[in-house]
Write a structure and sequence with these properties.
A: alpha/beta, Rossmann fold, 6-stranded mixed beta sheet, 3-stranded antiparallel beta sheet, B: mainly alpha, 11 helices
Chain lengths: ~325, ~290
């Protein structure tokens, strides 16, 4: 029996999460999170700090027990995932000072050894260590000790260890934290390569909208334990944008109107129908960045309202 | 379900673990800090020998230094097996080494095999270093077939009796800073275990405390392997008590082997990226 075959979901879903709830004591950090990811898809979990991104990813990695909900990762419940399942999942951890005196090549080679028994006809495991060092741009540092690496180089070691078993699904928690722009760009290319050439499903967390836009096929916006938006970057801008600005000129006089509805088309149609002298028409939709910032702000101000309501009740 | 595939994977993990132990030993031998620790026993033994010049074991004409060497060998085994893993596991938990093992298929098995092999090899290395000052008292010792047979057995039994319990202790402590307590406790136990001073010269109640822990019994075992006939007169009950020694070490081994997997599994379950981030945060702000 090929484990690859039995594991392939008929639906093509790599991830399926329904009504996931996690509690720390009496504090509910995830309040019913539901989403899924297709095979080969790059999904970004975007949200401000403390939104529950890391908790979500830790449940999916099998490192944290949820209070309730159905979680399926490559067809298995991560809480019961066996070693064979583990071999198909890549976890990119944030290195700190672990294995600091190991040489880069030794460390990667050590981790690669564990995956050889899990190779299948379709997926040769693990990656060739030297080839992978080339892919992550560490060939020149192969003999260097981990402690001598820069933050960005160390992060690339983390990525290499996370994907050395040629996983079908990779989890990346805040992958580019502390990267300089050059390292960030190289890392983005690596993620694209994983999804385009290896057909690897990628779930990453970030609080950086620009990064989510650049990397992800789909963005999930998480805030205070709930998903508040789910879609492609373009869709998200449409769904979340509440305002568009319409500017025009009539007889040398400039007019500005903020359209409160989602779709400004109707307003523009009426404007053009009623006033034939309109020139220099301009419709500006709020950028996704404006939208995200507004959303974070809205949620934060919403948080401030709650205690007031309580006061009014008592 | 255990299939041939999982058995194969376990075998690969065990081999990877041995490779890990060997690599870590190599790294350790190029690390100034580690070499310092390895030299502690040989150097302290040399100092002890200097202080003990001319002293003899009470009631015999045996050089006191000759009695200390076998005791030190026993202590090195106990120390390398107990304090080493305890401190290392606490550190590895805090810095994410264990989480990496958890994220790798059969990685925990590889990690544990690697640790046992690593502590075995480095303890052996420090024993070899101990042999250098030992030549000065070798003429007072009895090195024969019995030594060649008993010493390796005691080394292996000692490792089995201490590494699991040391690993379990290391997983109980909340931070690597707390695990330094193990170091202090070990020092105290060594002081009352008859290694630097004959246990028979201590108050009876302290003798009993000393006899609970593996330090005393490993020291006794290695003395029995190397001391000349008649030296047992300086021991409790005028005997090497070989059967009792293996019995007590056996009990420690069983306790450790039962306890360690339970405690380690419990600790490993609690390991998450955010727990490590929290530990890092704490250490960064505190500075240790």
């Amino acid at each position: 029996m090929s484990d690859r075959e039995s594991a392939t979901e008929p639906t093509g879903l790599a991830l399926d999460v329904r009504d996931l709830r996690v509690r720390y004591g009496s504090n509910e950090v995830l309040k019913g999170v539901t989403f899924s990811a297709l095979r080969g898809e790059v999904v970004a979990l975007l949200g401000p700090n403390g939104a529950g991104k890391t908790t979500t990813i830790e449940v999916l990695e099998g490192f944290r027990m949820p209070a309730s909900g159905d979680v399926s990762v490559l067809g298995s419940d991560p809480a019961r995932g066996d070693e064979r399942w583990r071999a198909r999942v890549g976890v990119v951890l944030q290195s700190w000072r672990d294995h600091s005196r190991w040489r880069v090549r030794d460390l990667l080679d050590y981790h690669a050894r564990f995956y050889a028994p899990y190779a299948t006809a379709e997926v040769p495991r693990p990656w060739d260590v030297d080839e992978l060092l080339g892919v992550v741009g560490l060939t020149a540092h192969a003999e260097q000790r981990v402690m001598r690496l820069s933050g960005g180089q160390r992060r690339r070691v983390d990525v290499a260890i996370g994907i050395v078993g040629r996983p079908e699904l990779v989890f990346l928690d805040e992958p580019t934290a502390g990267f300089d722009p050059h390292a960030r760009r190289e890392f983005h290319e690596l993620v694209h390569r994983l999804s385009d050439f290896e057909n690897t499903t990628v779930l990453l967390t970030t609080h950086d909208l620009a990064e989510a836009e650049k990397l992800a096929d789909r963005i999930l916006v998480l805030d205070r334990g709930a998903i508040i938006a789910d879609g492609s970057p373009d869709q998200l801008a449409l769904d979340l944008a509440t305002k568009a600005e319409v500017r025009w000129t009539v007889g040398g006089e400039r007019h500005v109107h903020a359209v409160e509805e989602r779709d400004p088309t109707e307003f523009v149609r009426r404007l053009l129908a009623t006033d034939p002298d309109v020139t220099e028409l301009e419709v500006k939709r709020a950028s996704l960045e404006d939208t995200y910032l507004a959303l974070v702000q809205r949620v934060e101000s919403g948080q401030a309202e709650e205690p007031e309501k309580l006061e009014a009740l008592s | 379900m255990i299939t041939t595939e999982t058995l194969g994977a376990r075998g690969v993990a065990v081999r990877a673990g041995l490779h890990r132990g060997w690599l870590e030993t190599k790294y350790s031998l190029t690390d100034v800090g580690d070499i310092f620790w390895m030299l502690i026993f040989p150097v302290s033994f040399t100092v002890t020998l200097l202080f003990m010049r001319g002293s003899t074991v009470p009631g015999t004409d045996l050089a006191l230094g000759a009695m200390v060497l076998p005791s030190l060998i026993g202590m090195s085994i106990a120390f390398g097996g107990l304090a080493g893993p305890a401190m290392q596991i606490a550190t590895d938990r805090e810095d994410g080494t264990l989480l990496r093992a958890k994220a790798t298929p059969d990685g925990m098995l590889g990690y544990l095999i690697g640790k046992i092999w690593f502590f075995g090899l480095t303890t052996l290395a420090s024993l070899v270093l101990l042999a250098i000052p030992a030549v000065t008292v070798i003429s007072d010792l009895r090195i024969d077939g019995r030594t060649a047979l008993l010493l390796p057995v005691i080394f292996v039994v000692g490792m089995i009796a201490t590494v699991p319990i040391g690993s379990a202790l290391g997983s109980i402590f909340k931070s690597s800073a707390q695990s330094m307590l193990i170091m202090l406790a070990s020092m105290l136990l060594i002081a009352i275990s008859g290694i630097f001073y004959p246990i028979t010269a201590m108050p009876t109640w302290l003798q009993w405390v000393g006899q609970v822990f593996p330090f005393y019994w490993l020291g006794l075992g290695t003395r029995s392997a190397m001391m000349p006939a008649g030296a047992e007169a300086a021991e409790i009950g005028d005997s090497w008590r070989t059967a009792e020694m293996f019995a007590v070490l056996g009990v420690w081994a069983v306790v450790g082997l039962v306890l360690a997997p339970i405690v380690l599994r419990r600790m490993a379950r609690r390991q998450t990226g955010s727990a490590i981030a929290a530990a890092r945060e704490k250490i960064m702000t505190r500075g240790y």
